[in-house]
Predict the 3D structure of the following.
Amino acid sequence: MDVKTQSYVTEAKKEMASPASRTFLDFFLPVLSAVREIGMTSFPDPAAAVERARAIRRSSVDRLGELLETFERNAVKAGARVFWAENAHEANIYIRDLVNRHRIPYVTKGKSMITEELGLNEVLKKNQTPVYETDLGEFIIQLLEKPPFHIIGPAINIPTDEISRVFMEKAGMDSASTDPVVLGQAARNFLRDKFRHMRLGITGVNMAVAETGSILNVENEGNIRFNKSAPGIQVSVMSLEKIVPNLDDALHMTRMLCRNGTGQKLTSYVTLDTGPRKQGEKDGPEELHIIILDNGRSRIYDDIKTREVLQCIRCGACINVCPVFRQIGGYPYGWAYTGPIGKLLNPLLLGLDRTRDLYGACTLCKACKTVCPAGIDHPSMILYLRNKNLAADPVLQGEGSTFAERLMSKTAAFAATRPRTWNTAARLGSFLASKLGPCHPLVSAWTLKRTFPSLPPKTYRDLRKHP
Amino acid sequence: MTVHHHDHVEKAMSDSRQTILGRLKTAERILHPDYPAMPPSPFLSMNHKDMVEILVRNLTEQGAEVHRAEGHENLRQTIDRVIADQGFSRIMVSEDPFMENLKLESHAENHCAEFIKPSDLEGNEQYKGTVFSVDAGLTTVDAAVAESGTLVIAHNKTQSRLISLAPLVHLAVVRTGTVVPVYEKALDLVIPNGGLPSQLTFITGPSMTADIMATPFRGMHGPRRLVVFLVDT
C-alpha cells in the first residue's frame, strides 16, 4: 500500500473536522475500551494473567531465532512448505509465482494487516489476478479504495449510505439500504460464490507455535476458516515475531488477544492448523505455504530497545485508549498500522525521516503502555525514536536536528554555564515573553500549541535578593 | 514458469533464511526471568455438574440454542424434532464413530429429511456443491470447554471442515462426558498422545461481525444459528 505518513497533519485536520469520524471516535472508542475492561474481568486473576502474557511475549522475542528454527522444522515435518522472505518484494513474488504456476483465476484473502504491509493486492492486480478481501470491513474498504481505519475494524467509521452506494455499484446489491444487517447479507451473498469456487486462499497468522509447527488464527466471521478449508492452496503470511514457544503459551495468548481486541472470552472461531489436509480428508488445502516475513524486523531486533515492539500481538487495545487516536482516527497514520503501535512500527519499518509526525504527535500519557498485554513501553520507545531522529541515526534513517533546534540548544547550553549571561537572558526573556506573546513568528512554532504561563516581572533570583 | 526461474526463487529464499536467522541469532541476548506464577484456574476445581451448567450459560449468552437429551434414543428424537420444526430437508452429517453409531437416517420415521455424508459424494465438486447448499450441518464435537462455552472439533477424514461452516445452521452434539473446564484439558482429551490433526477448530457461538458502525449481527460468513444438543451418555 502507498505510504502516506508524510501527510499526517493535513489528514489529521481533515479527520478532526469530519462528522462521520467524530461520531465514531467520540462514541465508539470509549465503548470499545470499556468492553475490553469488562472482558478482562473474566480472567480469574486479571493482573496475574497480564503479567504471564507479558512474560510469554518477552521470552518469545528473546528466543526468536531458535524458536523460528524449531517452528520451521516442525511445520515442514507436518507437511507445510515454509518460505523465508527478507522483504515485501520476495513475499509478493513468491505468491504471484504460485498464482501463475497453478493458473489461479482469482484469490481470496482473510483479514491481515501483514498483507496490507506487503502491498500484495497491488502486485496481484498488476498480475491481472482479481483479489477479493473476505473480511466484511476489509471488503468494504477494498471496494471504496480506502486504507484501514483501525486494525480490528478497518471500515468501522464508514457511514452506511456510503457502503450501500458502493455495494450497489460493485457488489451486486439490488436496492439501497442503511441497515447494517442487510448490507452484511449482501456481502455474504457476493462472497459466498467466491468461497465456493476458490482455489487459493491467503490469510495472516495470529500465532505460530514453535513446538508443534502450527499456525493459529482468530476471527469472528468465518472467512478465515473458509480460506483455510475450501481452497486447494493455502498461503499464510506471518511476520516473524508471531512465534510463541508452545501450545500452552498459545492458548494463554489467545485468551489475552480476544479479551483485549473485542472483549470476548474467545472469538467465534479460533483455528489451529498443523500441516495441510491429510490423506482421505474431504477438505482443507492440499498445499499449505507459510511465509515468514522479515521486512526490516531483524534490523529492529538488533537494537535491544526497539526489539520490544516485536512483542506486539496486534490486539488493538492501545489504539482504543489513545487520546491522539481518539481525536484523529486511523487515516493520518498513513500506513498499515495505526494508533500507538503505528507510531512505533511505521517509523521503525519505514524510517524515521518520513514518519516524523507519528512519533512527534504523542502526549506521553502512558495509556497505551498501561493496557498493553504484551508488555510494550510505547512512550519510552517514542522518546527513543525522537532522540534517534535528532541524532541522525543511520540505521533508522534519522533526519538530524534542524538549524533552529541546534542553535537553540547551543544557546541554552552557553547561557546555562554562565551565571551572568543566564540572569540577563532570564530577565530579557521574561520581558520579551510579556511583550511578544506566544503568537510571534519568532517562537510560534514552539509556543503556539502550548499553554504558556505568563511570566512574573521579577525572576526568583531577583526576589531572593530584594524580597 | 521455467525450472530455471524456480531455482532462482529457491536460492533467494535460502539466502534470505540465512540472512534473517543470522541477524536474529547474533543480536545481543537478553534473558528475562521465568514466567511468573499464575493462580490455578477456579474452573479446575469445579465439579462436573457445575461445569456443565457454566458451559450451558456461556453457550446461551453467546447466542447458541441448547437442547438437552438423555441417551441415544432421546437424542435422536430431540434432533428429529428440531429438524422437523425448522423444516430442514437436507442435512450434511459428520462421519465420526458417535454419529455413525447414532444411525439417524434409519430412525428418521417422523420426517423426510435427507442425511448426506461427505463420503456419499464423489469428488471435490460434488462435495462442495452439496455442503454449500444443504439446510444445516450436523456434527459431533470432540470436546466442549466450560470457561468460554467453546466447542472443539478435531478435523480428520470423519470430521470434514466445511460441515460446521458452510451451511446456515450448525447442529452440534455435545456429550457431557467430553465437557472440560479449560482449553488445555480439551487438548488432553482430543489429542491424548499429542498428535495434532490437520486442523483443530474452536467454535464459540455463531458467526458474527460488527464491522459496520460497530453494529453486531450473526451469520456473516458462517452459520447464523448454532444449535447444541447436550446429551448425557
